[in-house]
Design goal:
The chain is an alpha/beta fold. It contains 10 helices and 12 strands. Strands 4-3-5-12-6 form a 5-stranded mixed β-sheet, with helices on both faces. It has a 5-stranded mixed β-sheet with strand order 9-8-10-7-11, with helices on one face. A two-stranded antiparallel ribbon has the order 1-2. Helix 1 packs across helix 2 and helix 1 packs across helix 3. The longest helix is centred in the first third of the chain and has 28 residues. The chain is rod-shaped. The two termini are 55 Å apart. The model has no long low-confidence stretch (mean pLDDT 90).
């Protein structure tokens, strides 16, 4: 059957109000238009839906059955329209982001705070995975964009640097290490991140470029753990400088002076070529000054 959605809407309104006149007033259309739409619906379905009385209209048995289902459909359409309107007005919606502890705290957080103040109804979901898995989620449209640290694998994604970062070596504040040192001299004392991270891949590549391989004393899940272990004199930590700033200021650890420091690298924002939600685009636009 080729039935106009508006016919169902008019039918349900007349059924709820038991009146062609009241349906006309509530829908802001003429009484003849209401009657005509109901007649066309009855013709298309093949049976009468209302009994006309001097006091208004009542549903036939067939009309009762149709109303039970049509009213649910109308309610679903109305709810869908309401939710879509809320999303377009930025009153509701969701942004899915892939980010590490570092990129979240030292890059994304100020932008997320500002965005949340402006659009408190938007839900923000953040997944935390190593960079390769995060980029795979982006390719598969499981997240809207990612904030990741380099080095990055070759990719068809749109990727641009947003902040320079520096990896440093730290020791307990009162350690008696003679400085400056060559990095290779630290290779058996190091506390490093796990091998599945972009940071660890960068460090291992830099060690190979210097013709040695590290044998870390500890491999940990987070940079914050590395700082804590270092402060307890359990080895030489290698972290992005931001993670050590507080511990350095509190004189729990200190930066080691090395003759051959590691080169700078970057935090990147990676975007998929696929369409994103309006909310995600609004957040990315708010970060455009980077």
């Amino acid at each position: 059957m080729n039935i106009n959605y508006d016919w169902y809407k008019i039918f349900c309104c007349a059924a709820e109000n038991k009146s062609i006149t009241l349906a006309s007033e509530k829908l802001y259309i003429s009484q003849p238009a209401v009657s005509q739409s109901i007649s066309r619906l009855e013709e298309a379905i093949g049976c009468p839906l209302f009994l006309r009385t001097p006091k208004g209209v009542t549903l036939t048995s067939e009309g009762e059955i149709l109303y039970q289902y049509a009213s649910l459909g109308i309610a679903s359409f109305s709810e869908g329209e309401r939710r879509l309107t809320a999303m377009l007005r930025m009153d509701a919606g969701e942004i899915r982001i892939g980010a590490s502890d570092m990129t979240l705290e030292y890059f994304l957080l100020p932008y997320l705070e500002k965005f949340h103040i402006k659009y408190p109804g938007i839900k923000i979901s953040i997944t935390n995975n190593p960079t390769p898995q995060t980029l795979e989620l982006l390719k598969n449209r499981k997240i809207d964009f990612a904030a990741v640290s380099g080095p990055l694998p070759d990719s068809q994604l749109k990727i641009f640097p947003v902040r320079e970062i520096h990896d440093i070596f730290i020791c307990k504040y009162d350690c008696d290490l003679s400085e400056p040192v060559i990095i290779s001299e630290l290779k058996d004392k190091l506390i490093l991140l796990e091998s599945n991270t972009s940071t660890r891949r960068f460090i291992d590549n830099e060690f190979r470029r210097r013709a040695f391989t590290a044998s870390p004393k500890f491999e940990l899940a987070t940079s914050s753990q590395i700082v804590s272990f270092t402060a307890r004199n359990m080895g030489i930590g290698c972290v992005v400088s931001d993670f050590a700033e507080k511990a350095i200021a509190e004189k729990k650890v200190r930066k080691i002076d090395v003759e051959d420091p590691l080169p700078a690298r970057y935090i990147y924002v990676a975007q998929s070529p696929h369409l994103r939600s309006k909310a995600a685009d609004e957040l990315l636009n708010g970060m455009s000054e980077i």
